[in-house]
Design a protein that fits this description.
This protein is mainly alpha-helical. The protein contains 13 helices and no strands. Helix 3 packs across helix 4. The longest helix has 36 residues. It is globular and about 60 Å long.
């Protein structure tokens, strides 16, 4: 799945710096998909403010609670089920973010011209073709190298330098993963086809989008569900094993990183404490 928002922020060099500029970054990001008019840009700016206020006041405190939960869980050996539970919490946070942000995107979508909608769909199809060219052309060896590098870099970011034994365990887990790029791209292509029909914007199209997003997990293929769940189970086991094998130095590195993120989030919460919110 796309990266969870909490860890997207955590990966940034400066959480407060990035977060405080989301109101500038998000319109620019949307403008990558379709060229907006001045009126549409102002509409998007206005919609973003209550959204960001909602996220700062309602969601960030829940992120802090998750960090506290994770920090406490590190005091004893982790089981894969505990890693799975943390993942579920983060997934729920992402879904709440997706649900609220969808509303202002639908409002914006109602204002797009037919030409802009076609521009949007063409951009998404172009990205699909680029993904297919980039990912499907990889050999099995290249795929394993890429997935191992991504996994090891993510863990090293939180633990510091990994030991030889930890890297060996990652290699074993990486070999147990089922290749997922083809099934992911097929599901993405199916979703884009469905979106193209809905974006003809017949009466009731906004609710069709809401329903399609809400039921997305129910409409993916059984093969995708199997590969996705298998890989999650492998990852949960690896993460638990590597965290349980961490050295005292790695433990200090991990807790210090989590502490810095928690402090950044608490500052952001305090900054938004007196900001009115109309979302959610």
């Amino acid at each position: 799945m796309p990266g969870i928002f909490l860890f997207l922020l955590a990966a940034c060099s400066g959480t407060q710096f990035i977060y405080n500029r989301l109101g500038t970054i998000l319109p620019w990001y949307v403008d990558d998909y379709v060229e907006l008019t001045g009126v549409q840009e102002r509409q998007l700016d206005e919609a973003l403010q209550p959204f960001l206020s909602w996220h700062r006041q309602r969601e960030l405190p829940q992120y802090v609670a998750l960090l506290d939960k994770l920090d406490t869980s590190l005091d004893q050996p982790l089981r894969p089920a505990a890693v799975s539970a943390l993942y579920s919490d983060l997934e729920l946070a992402w879904l709440r973010l997706e649900q609220v942000s969808l509303e202002w995107l639908l409002d914006l979508g109602d204002e797009l011209s037919t030409e802009q909608v076609q521009e949007l769909l063409a951009y998404l199809q172009e990205r699909q073709a680029e993904y297919e060219e980039e990912y499907l052309a990889r050999s099995e060896e290249e795929y394993r190298e890429d997935s191992y590098e991504s996994f090891s870099d993510s863990l090293a970011d939180y633990l510091g330098k990994l030991s030889r034994e930890q890297r060996a365990r990652l290699q074993q887990g990486n070999a147990a993963l089922e290749r997922s790029d083809a099934v992911w791209l097929q599901e993405r292509a199916t979703w884009l086809d469905r979106l193209a029909v809905i974006m003809e914007r017949q009466p009731g199209w906004q609710q069709q989008i809401r329903d399609a997003v809400a039921r997305r997990g129910e409409t993916v293929s059984p093969r995708y569900q199997r590969v996705y769940q298998h890989n999650l189970d492998v990852i949960f086991n690896i993460v638990a094993e590597v965290l349980n094998s961490r050295t005292e130095r790695q433990d200090r590195h991990l807790r210090a990183k989590l502490g810095r993120l928690k402090k950044d989030l608490q500052v952001l919460i305090a900054q938004g404490a007196n900001t009115p919110t109309r979302t959610g």
